[in-house]
């Protein structure tokens, strides 16, 4: 009976921005992801926490195909990523699809990763023009509005080297938004910043969460995780050790390992 009710209320994959099922990944003989799954529903903010080396970055990088998972499914609003075997290695079946998936799941990295040889606005309009085929004028208009949003309209023509880390990271967020992604992936977006610059970046991320953006965020910012997440996932050695609402996972952790992980952070 319970199962029937669940089945009746279960959403179709096509209604869910991002479904990841049973992802596995090894580097050489070392198994790094051991069956990871998540569902990011519309407006969800899922935070991934865990010790260094637990697989957080690899998990995100698999989602937008910077790494190819050895097994498992990635489904974006019902579109499954297709893989093929090539000389014993698994690779994406279509690079066209990889490009599309990367714009549907836009990623913001720890190290900002703006293109150094392009102005800030150049960075923001690059993918809309060259991947999505948006006319330059329209891309520029939209790009300027996004820079305005992240407080950088007056820096549009600066090059990355002329910007602070916080400004570069807010620029990287504008660039990610420019492709109109269904899900934003963040990999420790504030870890490389001087402490006084962290707040501005987190403020932009909180705004995005407030406006209902679907996000998957790797972070060590526990206040952010507590205030903003719909779900917190704690990874240990490429497995989900504990997951749930922040009030449970962060305040009443069951796993002794997670208790130990959180102790110095609260
Ligand atoms: P986290 O982001 O949680 O710190 P990572 O996903 O970066 O963890 O790394 C998980 C494990 O995978 C680590 O042991 C790391 O050394 C290993 N790893 C990550 N990327 C590679 C790679 N390209 N080649 C070999 N090992 C890797
Ligand atoms: Mg990492």
UniProtKB/TrEMBL annotation:
Main subcellular location of this protein, as a coarse class: membrane
GO molecular function annotations of the record: ABC-type amino acid transporter activity; ATP binding; ATP hydrolysis activity
Subcellular location: Cell inner membrane
Pfam families, alphabetized: ABC_tran
Entry GO CC: plasma membrane
Record-linked InterPro entries: AAA+_ATPase, ABC_ATPase_HisP-typ, ABC_transporter-like_ATP-bd, MetN_ABC_transporter-like, P-loop_NTPase
Swiss-Prot/TrEMBL keywords: Amino-acid transport, ATP-binding, Cell membrane, Membrane, Nucleotide-binding, Transport
The ABC transporter domain, residue ranges: 18-262
Membrane topology: Peripheral membrane protein
Family, similarity comment: Belongs to the ABC transporter superfamily.
Protein name: ATP-binding protein
Provenance organism: Salinisphaera japonica YTM-1
Lineage: Bacteria, Pseudomonadati, Pseudomonadota, Gammaproteobacteria, Salinisphaerales
């Amino acid at each position: 009976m319970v199962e029937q009710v669940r089945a009746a209320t279960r959403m179709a994959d096509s209604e869910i921005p991002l479904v990841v099922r049973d992802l596995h990944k090894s580097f050489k003989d070392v198994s790094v992801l051991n069956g990871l799954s998540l569902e990011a529903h519309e407006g969800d903010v899922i935070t991934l926490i865990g010790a260094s080396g637990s697989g957080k970055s690899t998990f995100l990088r698999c989602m937008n195909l910077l790494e190819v998972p050895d097994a498992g499914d990635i489904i974006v609003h019902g579109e499954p990523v297709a893989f093929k075997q090539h000389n014993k290695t698994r690779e994406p079946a279509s690079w066209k699809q990889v490009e599309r998936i990367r714009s549907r799941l836009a990623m913001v990295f720890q190290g900002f990763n703006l293109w150094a040889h392009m102005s800030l606005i150049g960075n923001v309009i690059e993918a809309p023009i060259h991947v999505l085929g948006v006319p330059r004028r329209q891309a520029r208009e939209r790009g300027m509005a996004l820079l305005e949003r992240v407080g950088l309209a007056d820096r549009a023509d600066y090059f990355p080297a002329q910007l602070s880390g916080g400004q570069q990271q807010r620029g990287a967020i504008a660039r990610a938004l420019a492709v109109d992604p269904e899900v934003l992936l963040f990999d420790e977006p504030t870890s490389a910043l001087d402490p006084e610059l962290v707040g501005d970046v987190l403020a932009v991320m909180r705004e995005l969460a407030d406006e209902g953006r679907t996000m998957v965020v790797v972070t060590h910012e526990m206040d952010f995780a507590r205030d903003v997440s719909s779900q917190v996932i704690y990874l240990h050695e490429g497995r989900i050790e504990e997951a749930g609402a922040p009030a449970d996972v962060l305040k009443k952790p069951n796993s002794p390992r997670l208790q130990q992980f959180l102790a110095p952070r609260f």
